[in-house]
Write the structure tokens for this entry.
Amino acid sequence: MHPVLAIAKKDMAQLFRDRVGFFFVFIFPIGFGVLFGVIFSGASDGPSNVRLVIADLDNSPASEALIGLLEDDPKISVTLDADRDAAFDMVRTGEQAGALLIPEGFGDDLESMFFGEGAELVVSFDPGKNLESGVLRGMIQAAAYQTMFGAFQGGASSQRMLDRARESLAESEDLNFAERAVISTFLSSADSMLSLREQDDSEDGATGDGTGGFQPITITDDSPATGSDDDPDAPKKASPDTAFEITFPQAVAWGLMSCVLGFGLGVVGERTRGTLTRLRLAPIAPWQIIAGKALACFLTCLGVQVLIMSLGVGVFGVRPDSWGILIAGILCACIAFVGLGMLLASLGKTETGSEGLSRAVLLILALVGGAGVPLAIMPGWVQQAASISPFKWVIQVLDGALWRQATFGEVIAPCAVLIGIGVVGFLIGALLFQRSSD
């Protein structure tokens, strides 16, 4: 047999004998395509399960109608909260994509559109979730105007508008006789038209569109924003000063993934080349070998994060709101990915199989955790499953440190999750590693 063919045959035989490597070369790509085809099958319909918290201070039929329209929208997940500050704080921390405040008197203002200033709604959107914010903005505006049009469709509400207009006319002292006469004539004509419409509706069963003149609803945007340039002493709200404050946490996540991948391949390579066997024969305790490799992975993860964040601060204008939380987040991320790296390194028996397994696991965790694709376009079940990914928690802590103005109390939970992932992964990986080395 020709030497070229013999070498090719040998390499192919090695690949097919490595069952793990064979799986990730031939089978995993198919499964990957099917899995994410299912995940993104609804992406063409736009974001789903967009979280909106509503603070209803009015509790009127009009506010209930507005909330009902938003709750009926399948793309929105509505949470009700009676406290304005609590609702807006959920947006600051990233728990909700948007908040809607329905002020007290909203229903009365809808009935005063002919002679008052109109109704007002106050909204706040997460500046780090532009896709979800745009969807919510359009849906809230559509629901608000639909609620406003509804005020014209019922005879009772329209009649109340006219009655309140007459009361305002009677109490006004700024109008002369001619102006009073003109307005009074207009109201009488409107009353007659309303009576005729109600008569037609009762005969034809129609509801009428009632789209007479109106004053639009005012939607005030109170989203987090940076302090005014005119007032440099004004307190900064929870908003990024630059887009790099949003993208650099994701860069850190991808850097950690590369560290774990390199660490895992290095361990498997030493096992296949016999380096680990020689280390075991040396006067070194097994725990020292494991601890040394874990320390190397920890320092590498730490170095990558420090390098990325230093570049962001020194070159791209990243300005952390809390250095303490940033340092805590970096250290917790190191712990989490050291444990994950130890676990993945202990599962691979060959370099080909270990590389395929590590890449597959890390890629899925990164995509599901929001490190590459916005979670908003994912189905609801994927958004729920994202909590198992350390990438989600790393990005959440770093966002809180850089621009969300998170407190230490708010990052305790994600930091605890990262530490838990690291400890559990390290213990399982160390146990499997020691067994495979015996």
Notes: The radius of gyration is 31 Å. The chain has a mean pLDDT of 78. Residues 15 and 22 are 6 Å apart (CA to CA). Residues 240-437 form one domain.
